[in-house]
Design goal:
single chain; 315 residues; mainly alpha; MetI-like fold; two-stranded antiparallel sheet; 13 helices; globular
């Protein structure tokens, strides 16, 4: 055996990584991605870590800046005992559940309609994406004009069926509904596009076989289409939960968290505590607790998504 011969039982593939890349190519890939990873760390990981450190300390503001003192969990204790935080948590969770459920149902219906179109599908998709592409602050301002009690179109329309024009943004229930309508109008197209991407990947022979077996449209949807869309729906739900739980701009523009604090989400509460009350430690504790809740929700969604993928592989 020469000096360059391979030992018995070993091949050149044994020196490669499990993904199939040799060590040198892997190092080159890391070098190319290092700048991007550094930027991500600076704009995401560092602020998160800084906020966590701030949440465990008492922040003293001065003309020369701020300093950290008295390391403890007092900020978290104050936040968890605050009724305002609990009210904001209830609103955020309820809003997330209702908005994601409504958008998921409407998104599936819109995707089913688009999937059956041919020539006009591209134009309709472009029109549907206009609300999603619009900046949320601008769309929220437009909806504030619509819901205005003095000259709003929605108030005028509802006033045709009542004695007086209703103050839509003046009661907790109607203000919640107004925020929900504005959010559904904006983000339903996003869900519809994701669901449509899943629909076009389904093999048409499956539907042909179901039709030959005598399956009707309703039965085909529940027994074939919906099960095959579980992975796509899980992705849509994951994205929408992340976005809905961190809602800030719609309540900020439409209701300012009112009436009272009935429509104040956790993100708006953290902003007010930190930048209006100048209580940096408590505001950071609100932000950190919100991030922890979102992280746990993502873990649950990913676990459910992984379980669905495993069931499909078994089948």
């Amino acid at each position: 055996m020469t000096a360059h011969a391979w030992p018995p039982g070993r091949t050149r593939a044994a020196r490669t990584r499990p993904g199939g890349r040799p060590p040198r190519r892997s190092r080159v890939a890391w070098w190319y991605t290092a700048p991007t990873l550094l930027v991500v760390a600076l704009v995401t990981i560092f602020p998160i870590g800084f906020s966590v450190v701030m949440s465990f300390s008492r922040v003293e503001l001065s003309s020369s800046g701020f300093s950290f003192t008295d390391w403890s969990t007092d900020n978290y204790a104050a936040v968890l005992q605050s009724p305002v935080w609990r009210e904001a948590l209830v609103f955020t969770v309820l809003y997330t559940l209702v908005s994601v459920a409504v958008e998921l149902v409407l998104g599936v219906l819109v995707a089913l309609v688009l999937e059956r179109l041919t020539a006009a599908r591209g134009w309709l998709m472009a029109l549907l994406l206009i609300p999603w592409a619009m900046i949320t602050v601008i769309s929220a301002q437009l909806w504030s004009y619509i819901f205005n009690s003095a000259y709003g179109a929605a108030s005028w329309l509802l006033g045709l069926f009542t004695d007086e024009p209703p103050v839509i943004l003046g009661t907790p229930a109607s203000a919640f509904s107004a925020i929900l309508v504005a959010d559904v109008w904006k983000t339903t197209p996003f869900v519809a596009i994701i669901v449509l991407a899943g629909l076009v990947t389904i093999d048409r022979s499956v539907y042909e076989a179901a039709e030959m077996d005598g399956s009707g449209p309703w039965s085909t949807f529940w027994r074939i289409t919906l099960p095959l869309l579980r992975t796509t729906l899980a992705i849509a739900v994951l994205f929408r939960v992340l976005q809905a739980f961190g809602i800030f701009d719609l309540p900020f523009v439409l209701t300012s968290g009112g009436p009272g604090t009935s429509t104040q989400p956790l993100a708006l509460l953290g902003w007010r505590v930190m930048f209006q009350n100048l209580n940096m430690g408590a505001g950071a504790a609100v932000a950190a607790s919100t991030a922890l809740i979102v992280f746990l929700a993502c873990l649950l969604c990913l676990r459910a998504f992984r379980a669905q993928v495993g069931e499909e592989e078994v089948r």
